[in-house]
Amino acid sequence: IRVTKTIDFKFDQDRLYDDNADWKDVYAYFRKNGQIIIQDAGRLIVYERGNSSFSTVNLPDNQSLLNISCALDENDQLYVACKNNVLVLTQQNKLVMWQANATTSRFGFKSIYIDRSGLLWLGGNGSGIQTYNLNPPGFVTHNYKLTFHEDLLQDYLNVPLTALHDYFSQYKSSYVFRWVYGNNGSIWFTKASSDEAATPQICSYYKGTISKKIWHYNKSGIQYHTNASALGVSKSGKLWGIDFFMRPVYFDTVRLEATVYPSLYNANTSTNYTANSLMIDGEDEFWISTAFDGLFFYNISTHKIKHYEASEKQASLPTNQLMNLVQDPTDSSIL
Prior knowledge:
It is built from two helices and 24 strands. It is mainly β. It has a five-stranded mixed β-sheet, with no helix packed on it. The protein is elongated and about 100 Å long. It starts with 27 loop residues before the first strand and ends in a 27-residue tail after the last strand.
């Protein structure tokens, strides 16, 4: 053992070690900023490494070391269990009462520990163990101010409210809002509907600006057009959609032209929004979830179609109502 530095104590009590103390084990906790917190009878001693100075934080009721247990969390806050209270020494060295509702221990808290997962364990000295998750909750509720899509564009993508009113007066329900990320950082969106559309109703967002251009349909022989009920982007960035009648729609973003292809399936068109989502694997393989007709696989090059439905058979779909599809980011073979 080699002594690297000797520090003179300058407390009202002139020494840390007291031979007359009822408990002689003294623990130290090391913060990321270099501070050292020393657990002492009735107080916490804070050492500032920068200027080699000490300060004290008094604990309530002049606690004995026998009744104190401490634990340091990942944010450098020190939790102090003493008698029936849990106190927190903040990063600013302010001692406050812990806001969580720990059940009072019959014989006082004897031990406290924070594991690597962020779980705080509180020992009740013969009256049980309590645990508390210090991590934020997994689900946080965000109440809408206007609607889902308007809040998203205004609060997170910085689109002016006036622009929202200009472009989104037709979007009365968030359920009909359909969108997809483009490869260049843009977002394409449309309104799912069975209503006839003389021109493709599709907009794009890019760097805080919404763009709504005048599109037209290719003269493919199909006369009755509807908005896309689902949008998808291929690996190369081609924009596709599936309309209300389960017809693939290719959107040429340069010519602003939409080409509608024959229907994949005689879908249940008695209810709106037959297609819910479109996920394109590579360039040709389309996976389409529907509101009532299960899941479809379609290869745009070979025209191969495979239909998956719910049934009593093993490994079938649990339901025919599939709201959304997402490809696993680590394994493209998993949806």
